[in-house]
Amino acid sequence: MTRDIHHFLNGKTTVGTSGQFGDVYNPNTGAVQARVQFATTDEVARAVADAKTAQVKWAAMNPQRRARVLMTYKSLVEAEMDSLAELLSSEHGKVVADSKGDLIRGLEVIEFACGVPHLLKGEYTESAGTGIDVYSMRQPLGVVAGISPFNFPAMIPMWFMGMALATGNAMILKPSEKDPSVPVRLAELMVEAGLPEGVLQIVHGDKTAVDALLHNDDIKAVSFVGSSNIAHYIAQTCAQQGKRFQAMGGAKNHGIIMPDADMDQVVTDFLGAAFGSAGERCMALPVAVPVGQDTADEFVGRIKEEAAKLRVGISTDADAHYGPVVSAAHRASIEKWIQTGIDEGADLLLDGRGFELQGHEKGFFIGPTLFDNVKPSMTAYQEEIFGPVLQVVRADSLDEAAHLPSEHQYGNGVAIFTRNGLAAREFASKVQVGMVGINVPIPVPVAYHSFGGWKRSAFTDTNQYGTDGIRFFTKIKTVTQRWPTGDIGDQAFVIPTMN
Ligand code: NAD
């Protein structure tokens, strides 16, 4: 009997009625380990209606009390860290230590959200006119939706929940159907921490469930993270429906290696950032751009030698550098891109295709793959591969190197490795990318800044979490007040001004 993963509604596990399911694999073995239920449009509508009722009381609770629920929640997640990380790895495939990182980066946003009483404070102007004061306040939107991708099944749901719940909203979370178990457990723990039932609802599903959220009038905002085409679709549909949205998309991040870079650091950083989590990170570093032929030759020689030594293993292998990719279909897509790279004329130096792990021959493994002499005209360079594939694009100057990320369709993250502060400063100022690392390979901003790319990496003008998260999940109300003094002024038929 296959285990079923159910919706989590009104504080309880809720068995769905659609008869539609998605397979959840164990990527280490290739076996189907569970089925996840897919919600119908009616089921989504009921989940939203119940959340709408529950939200009223939650919003009325003072922000300090809401924050205390999140404080308790953080302790509960920490207490379950080991079992949550193992559950996450068993569905995603990333190694357990990396799954803990996934959980901890999410908890850092919860920690930031614990400061919500301060973050929600409005503005006040005394005597903006004679006897007139003006003040503003931030109020929750109502019921909002979060739609998350497979690659961070703990962190990204917590980005959404932390900011949306702290600000007094109810949230419908539609997690990735590929690894849905951790989001469910995270929601159960939120109720254990004191969140009223119905304020956080989990509906599983595919396009049907997503469309049901996008077309539901009671959903006031949608926060989405996933691939760019779907992100664009979410953005367009939300705009048509008059909903607020933030829709983060795919990526192809470049790491520029200057001749004066610390090559030991560069090689170490690229190994982790290009191959960690099997390259399934939107802030992975799959493109290396060495500047000058000497830099390129040294980098390529050293990364080839070190990448070939990486240990690919099952998620629970404490010595493994990375585990399997999420599905057989995704592995096939990565292998197809490797073939495209060869067909387009790049030099394949390490080929991870056909990698078999002894004892786990049916697992979705793929070995480290390295290309040299990749050109900007190649589609294998232009598109996101999202696997353990590092492409080297050689450049003759910093100017030529800097144009690559700036002109790429994606603009999520970029890194420059150099000892020259002036060059780094100029680069950071001019590059057309949302998040920049200077000798930092994965520049994911800490929770009290905010996360967001440019171009096709994000269809939005507010970033995830940080003060942008507070802005996204609240609407501002501005009050202009005057109290009667008994002095009745003239009737006014023209708009009042400060003249
Ligand atoms: P995906 O776009 O396939 O799925 C994301 C979500 O959209 C899932 O919940 C899925 O069920 C839903 N979905 C899938 N098809 C849909 C459709 N036709 N209509 C409506 N909804 C649909 O993405 P994924 O494969 O789960 O995640 C990997 C992608 O996410 C990569 O492109 C990666 O770069 C990107 N990503 C981006 C960021 C970022 O912040 N920019 C962070 C993490 C991942």
Automatic annotation (TrEMBL):
One of its GO terms (molecular function) is methylmalonate-semialdehyde dehydrogenase (acylating, NAD) activity. The keyword Oxidoreductase applies. It is an enzyme of class 1 (oxidoreductase). Its EC number is 1.2.1.27. Residues 22-479 form the Aldehyde dehydrogenase domain. Keywords: NAD, Oxidoreductase. Transmembrane segments: none annotated. Signal peptide: none annotated. Pfam families: Aldedh (PF00171). Coiled coil: none annotated. One of its GO terms (biological process) is L-valine catabolic process. This is methylmalonate-semialdehyde dehydrogenase (CoA acylating). It comes from Maricaulis maris (strain MCS10).
